[in-house]
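In the current project phase, our protein records have gained a structure token line. A sample record follows, to show the layout:
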Amino acid sequence: MPELTFEDIRMATAAGSSDKPSEDWAHASSGLLVTLDGATARTDTGCVHGVHWYAARLGAALVDFGADSAMDLTEVLRRAIIRVAAEHPSCDLTHPGTPSAGVALLRADGRYLVLGDVTIAGTGGDGPIVLVDPRVEQTARPERDEVDRHLIGTPEKAAALIPMKRAELAARNVAGGYWIAAADPAAAEHALTGRLDADVSPVAVLTDGAARAVTLGLMGWSHLLRIASTDGPDELIEIVRRAEASDPLGAKWPRNKTSDDATAVVAHRR
């Protein structure tokens, strides 16, 4: 069987706010898709670099190590985390809030890795296949519920977000919590990995800002994949943005901010 490659690659990204750079990062080539979702910092980080910097540096390292198609994706992520940690040794990399990011890697041959809240979706013979790490959303449930009680932009919402973030950080990269790329390469061992069947196509890799098309209930995964692969990922993000604009305070769809950074990469495997 001929070696599979990614073709008809399309990518779109949009910052969630006009006053700060996007903390998403993505790369696409014929052999590898890489998408990162930087974790919003709401507390001190012990680091002079921002999440935008971290996501960009980690993404570049993942592309470099991922160029070796024989390297296991867990090892790709492990080495990338080590490289970026070495790039800012003067920062307190043991700080619980040190910059971090969710990661998804997908090779054209179907090998995948997911760590944190980045989603890989694809169309298979029996319908959509969705690969997402649920562990982040399973943490700090009482604190998340309290945040959802308040409208976006209110002092009550802002106040509730702090204990939610602290509860998240307490569960980050510890047994029984959730795992995300930060400064400790051991997190790579906790990623979800596997291999898609050869007939799964098209495929999409999305940060949670783009996955809102499904999580807000606007459409199902089959519909999302159809829009992303035909109308394009930019149209998918625009659908999300229109929905968000219709509910700016989060009264209909409770969420932490009106719009989140959104990135979608879609490709066919042939």
About this structure: The chain has a mean pLDDT of 96. Residues 218 and 243 are 8 Å apart (CA to CA).
